[in-house]
Amino acid sequence: MEPANQADSPKQHAPQAQPLAGQHALVTGGNRGIGAAIAEELVRLGVNLTLAARDRESLNRRRERLSQIGPSAISTQVMDLTDPESIAQSHKAARDDLGPITILINNAGVAPSAPLGKLELKSWKETFAINVQAAFLLSQAVLPGMQDKGFGRIVNIASTAGLRGYPFVAGYVASKHALVGLTRAMALELAKAPITVNAVCPGYTETEIALNAIANIQKSGKTEAEARAILTRSNPQGRLVQPEEVAATVAWLCLPSSCAVTGQSVAVAGGEVM
What is the dihedral of CA 209, 210, 213, 219, to 10 degrees? Predict the structure, then answer.
């Protein structure tokens, strides 16, 4: 529909309504859960978007949904975060498609569960490859483009497991602590550049991972309500965090007005950690 008059033109209002218009954001694991919520929020703010994940079919479905939100250009990249060559090729393809990446959301992660004595080295290595190494490689890859553009936002989706310990997920806890440490080191190194680096640390969030955990607890004879109570007992609000709440925090950190916020680990966890 054409605007009724020039004053009502969306183009005229774009700088206020879409403060990230013209920026190119890459979201790993953007096909579901927290990543999908982040992608939607960023599209509403005007970014051109690249979604990266392993599954092409789910990426295409998510792209179709995002295309209905706004006029942003949306690209997809099949990326294996355990493979440095796949990361490099996908980054190059994304850059060639939509230009230098100025907003990087390292969201994809894995959380295998096992007692310490049964935690296999293969699982440990894969957890670090996806949760830490991929974030490092992608950050390194996008840095020249951010420096050339004079704007950059890197947001690492860590976890409250990056701020405290939990039993039976030693690899996950160690990797998220490492991701928080990487965030702080990069933030200091880039402090004089127009690039901020922050971590967002959700508590248990209503995603497929949490729902699977609830289902596993139910196998012990608990009801769904009892299983949810067990999962949320560390949250003073007594509930699961919603993906949209995490996405709103990530989007705020990406805004031009958040330029003084860097090196932070922002917990979105109902007061679980302070």
Answer: -120
* Segments of 79-149 assigned E as strands: 103-106
Query: What gap in Å lies between CA 89 and CA 98, rounded to an integer?
Result: 14
pLDDT digits (tens, 9 = 90+) for 42-55: 999 999 999 999 99
Map tokens 């949250």 to a residue: 235
- Rounded CA-CA distance 102/147 in Å is 9
Picking from 124, 146, 138, 155, the residue whose alpha carbon sits closest to that of residue 34 is: 155
**Contact 209/274 with Cβ under 8 angstroms?**
no
Helices and strands per DSSP (H, E), number in the chain = 10, 7
Whether 204 sits among the annotated catalytic residues: the reply is no
Pairwise CA distance, residues 182 & 178, whole Å: 6
- The active-site residue out of 128, 151, 172, 204 is 172
Q: Are 169 and 112 in contact (CB under 8 A)?
A: yes
User: How many CB atoms neighbour CB 165 within 10 A?
Assistant: 11
Match 């330029």 to its residue by tokens.
Answer: 259
The token pair at 208 is: 């497929």
Q: What is the dihedral of CA 39, 72, 98, 59, to 10 degrees?
A: 40
CA 122 to CA 112: how far, in whole Å? 11
Mean pLDDT of the chain: 92
**DSSP one-letter code for 49:** E
Name the pTM for this structure. Answer: 0.91
Of 82, 242, 268, nearest to 162 by C-alpha is: 268
